[in-house]
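[#protein-structures] MJ: dropping MFS transporter here for a structure pass
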Amino acid sequence: MAPIPVPPDRSTTPDEPVDRPGVRERAAVPVLAFGGILMAVMQTVVVPLLPDLPRLTGASAGAVSWMVTATLLSGAVLTPVLGRAGDMYGKRRVLLAALGLMTLGSVLCALSSDIGVLITARALQGAAAAVVPLSISILRDELPPERTGSAVALMSSTVGIGAALGLPLAALVIQYATWHTMFWVTSGLGAVGLLLAWWAVRESPVRAPGRFDVLGALGLAAGLVSLLLAVSQGGQWGWGSPRILGLFVACVLILTLWSVQQVRAERPLVDLRLASRPRVALPHIAALLVGFGFYANSLVTAQLVQAPKATGYGLGLSIVGSGLCLLPGGVTMLLFSPLSARISASRGPRVTLALGAAVLALGYAVRIADSRDLWMVIVGASIVATGTTLAYSALPTLILGAVPAGQTASANGVNVLMRTIGQAVCSAAVAAILVHHTSLVGGTPVPTLHGYLLTFAMAGTVALVACAAALTIPKDRASGGTRRASVRTEAARDEALEGA
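AK: finished. structure tokens for MFS transporter:
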């Protein structure tokens, strides 16, 4: 096996001068975090538009829903693929490509009202889902160990921060300008993010040489499309319909054959032997459960506060007002990311993950206790955001400690993929609950408060299962509290992982 290139040792002795980083090196972490926020913003800005897009585009509501589905599918497929490509061909290069596709998709949305072009553009934007795992891998390669934990925690929090910013941003622009203007704004932000990344981020020397597994990529894409298409469209097509059942059967068959091919491949897209080890598999399972648990908060909060007052629980807020309800949660995620890094450094990331999942469950308990008063809705949503921050910051740290440096981007890509699957399943489950618990208000079917409370109970229960899964993750004997290993020591551990 080819040796893994090791970055220059950044440790110094007391007699050696400290090599202070330049402006570009200091800017790398905030620039990468800005890219993560942009990715989440791009995914959420279309949500306030969905009720009006059939009228604006002349398309059916079913066709318009594909502007969300296309991004979900392409993001799920491309995240592990681009992660593996980054490990092989250069993480900076693939990161810039992902940001470029995201920006191009936004420009196409700004230029067209044709639903076919819009769906294609949103599929291009799905490539941005790989920005976070690629950035985390770059941070591991480029930063000294004592700075990696806080930087990774911040990077993980950008998903929630961007989602909290995206809804009110889109609502404000739509309220005072046209919907095309919103996409021009996101295009400008994407161009800025791309240029900053090109300037501030340097290419990592850590590579995993070999030939790209094209067959594995195609098999994974086919299996994931079958799974997520069935999950996302089951409510519209009917869960017992031949199309949905056929997709589930196809998913099982394709992924079974794909697994056999991956085990036999010399350089697989996903190292299933490594992924099956408890220190890797359990964080992936926890990622799926946490993704399910946190997403219910984003799906339900805006709907609940926008419900008419005639329901007895709704607050009748505007789109802008409902988006602003999630903004404190985004600020909370930003403030708590340094704390999550300190907990991981002192107690270990598995403790941080378990604590985050428990806080998630606590947040839903608050939502069940009171979802009628605005301030309690905001408090409950902010507690859920806090738990999400703790859990999401711990997941990549667990992965970094369990896989060799040459596989960090692809392994974190799989972890992000598991979050995406969890979110997709949560979306289908929430829709199923709310559809079966409605009442007529002014002749219009509206979800009942009981339906929302059932949703919170479901999400809180899943969060508790995630907490239990986190506690079963084996401890990292190499960490033993505060992690102060040098880059060379980490490289030696990577060689041991490769040979295991």
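MJ: nice. The radius of gyration is 22 Å.
AK: one more thing. The longest helix spans residues 145-176.
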